[in-house]
Amino acid sequence: MGLGFITELRKDIEDVCSRVGLDFSINLVSTMKRGIAGIFVGHYIQAHRKAVELAKRVYHTELPKLSSEERLDIGFFNLYPEDTELQQTVKGFPIFFSAYELFKREAAIIFMTAATEGRGYHSLLGETGGRLYQNWGEHPLFQALSNNPFGIFSPNLSRADVLHYYPKRTIFHKNFHTLLQELEKTYGTSPRAGIFPSSIQLVSKQY
Q1: What backbone torsions phi and psi does residue 11 show, to the nearest 5 degrees?
Q2: 78 CB neighbour count, 10 Å cutoff
Q3: pTM of this structure
Q4: Residue 179: which of 206, 205, 157 has the closest Cα?
Q5: How far apart are CA 68 and CA 87, in angstroms?
Q6: Domain limits for position 16
Q7: Which of 32, 50, 62, 161: CA 20 to 30 A from 119?
Q8: Are 184 and 142 in contact (CB under 8 A)?
């Protein structure tokens, strides 16, 4: 998810891999335009770690230093290239938290996704009735945004799709102009806004 370090979840996955006897993997580091920056083949841990090191170099972005007056009122996060389904939008959160110092305390966070395949499907995490189901609005990542208006723009989704994953307070619009009109009610007609063109591919810090 673009975190830039090995998470506990990753360690759990690798533990399962060791138990079932996996000893080989192929890891691709893609570019913002869906090209290939590198391919790492071999042991599932060693090859992955080499891929992570390249990813840090490929995706690293130096963030500007902003004064409190210069910080952003609104962040527009384009979820390309993993924007084919709503289910993937959760990957936008790490990029916001990597760049949180650019934003004012009550800045609006807007995810933009084409979602050409609609809501999408996840057999464990995203389906009501599944043992691990949890509305993402209840996730600690989302709770950390309790002071921030949060919204999704997509021409290919319905509000029912969005509420399948996110809480009722989520702003949703299919029309971008209508979304801007709603944001203007809070932030005025000349807010300070930042656009992140490839939101899942940014590592703002070297870990």
Answers
A1: -65, -40
A2: 19
A3: 0.81
A4: 157
A5: 34
A6: 8-59
A7: 32
A8: no
* 190 located within any domain: yes
**CATH number of the domain encompassing residue 89:** 3.90.226.30
Kindly give, in sequence order, each residue whose CB lies less than 8 Å from that of residue 161, ignoring residues fewer than 6 positions away.
86, 115, 118, 119
Q: In sequence order, what are the beta bridge partners of 72?
A: 103
Burial class (CB in 10 A: 0-12, 13-18, 19+), 32: middle
DSSP of 107-120: EEEEEE---TTTT-
How far apart are alpha carbons 101 and 64 in whole angstroms? 9
SS3 call for 103: strand
> Are 38 and 78 found together in one domain?
no
Query: How many folded domains does the chain comprise?
Result: 2
d(CA 123, CA 105): 35
Average pLDDT of the chain, as a whole number: 86
How much is the pLDDT for 1? 42
Count Cβ atoms below 10 Å from residue 23 Cβ, excluding itself.
10
Do residues 119 and 85 touch, judged by C-beta distance below 8 A? yes
